[in-house]
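Dear colleagues,

As part of the handover before I leave the project, I'm documenting each prediction I ran so the next person doesn't have to rerun anything. This entry is a single chain, and its sequence is reproduced below.
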Amino acid sequence: MTDARFTDGKDADALRTIGEVARALGIKQHVLRYWEQQFPMLNPLKRSGGRRYYRSEDIRIVDEIDRLVNQEGYTLKGARLALEGGKGSDQEDEGSGRSDIVPQLKAIRRRLAAALD
């Protein structure tokens, strides 16, 4: 992982605690724990006492979940299906949990941004 948000001096592939990941990505720790329950592919290492250590792959998954949910408007179920490779066909998109209004809102946002430029 070569993410510029991690300026902690650690190697790109070093393990990071939940606190380090939360600070770097701007996501609360309790949200990361909840996402672990909702996304089976997000499975950081857990050591004695339940301390979590995120690998670079875990951080990439968290970043992708954040993008799908908070930027693209997916529901958690829809984001999980997308990460599992469930997006592509019309039938799968309908069941993805993504609101039909999201693409319309994005188009409006693009038009407004273009008008302001």
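Residues 87-96 have pLDDT under 50 and may be disordered. The radius of gyration is 17 Å.

All the best with the project,
I.
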